[in-house]
Amino acid sequence: MVSVVIFDAFGTLIPKALRRVNPYSRLIGNGDSGKSARRPFLTRNVAIDVFAEELGLAYLVPLLRREIQQEIDELTLYPDVELTLSKLRGAGYRIAVCSNLAFEYCASVRAILPAIDEFIFSCEVGAAKPEREIYIEACTRMSCRPRDTLFVGDSKKADIEGPEAFGMQARLIDRGSGQSLSNALFGAL
Questions:
Q1: At 142, which CATH number?
Q2: 136 near 103, Cβ under 8 Å?
Q3: In this predicted model, what pLDDT tens digit does every residue of 61-86 receive, in sequence order?
Q4: Each residue of 108-117: pLDDT tens digit?
Q5: How far, rounded to the nearest angstrom, does the alpha carbon of residue 163 sit from its chain's CA centroid?
Q6: Cys staple from 120: which of 89, 90, 98, 162, with CB 3.0 to 4.6 Å?
Q7: Whole-prediction pTM value?
Q8: Is 108 within 8 Å of 75 (Cβ atoms)?
Q9: Are residues 129 and 64 part of one domain?
Q10: 127 burial class (0-12, 13-18, 19+ CB within 10 angstroms)?
């Protein structure tokens, strides 16, 4: 029986930026835009300044900081998030957010989602979805078994296949087609 609901952040609770700047892409060499190039940004709990310095690109830090702040300033919740989270909490569910996130965004995501029991961010855990370790950490922090957990997100691989391979239940949400959290949760709880 599901007692814990874990949500992805961006694309699920928080809209993805319409004009995504992606400051971290400036730190990836030309021609190396794959996941392996982006992984350190998501699994190391350090500021972008550190990456820029390590890569010999410290001169980009003022620009990178402005771009990050621009993205942070635009963070909002989907209109249905607060009511859905309130209903879940009222029904006795514990709620977590598990997201692949770079260091700079963690505090802002925590600030706009204050009614969450736990935040499991890839940069703080050192593992990114769909890696098993991040789901282990989520269940450990929530003191639950995978089978008692429902994971909801917008990525088939990271939010459905990864959690299901770990033994969680999972639901895909398609915000692009107008699907709401209630629709995504329907029948799962």
A1: 3.40.50.1000
A2: no
A3: 999 999 999 999 989 999 999 999 99
A4: 999 999 889 9
A5: 14
A6: 98
A7: 0.93
A8: yes
A9: no
A10: buried
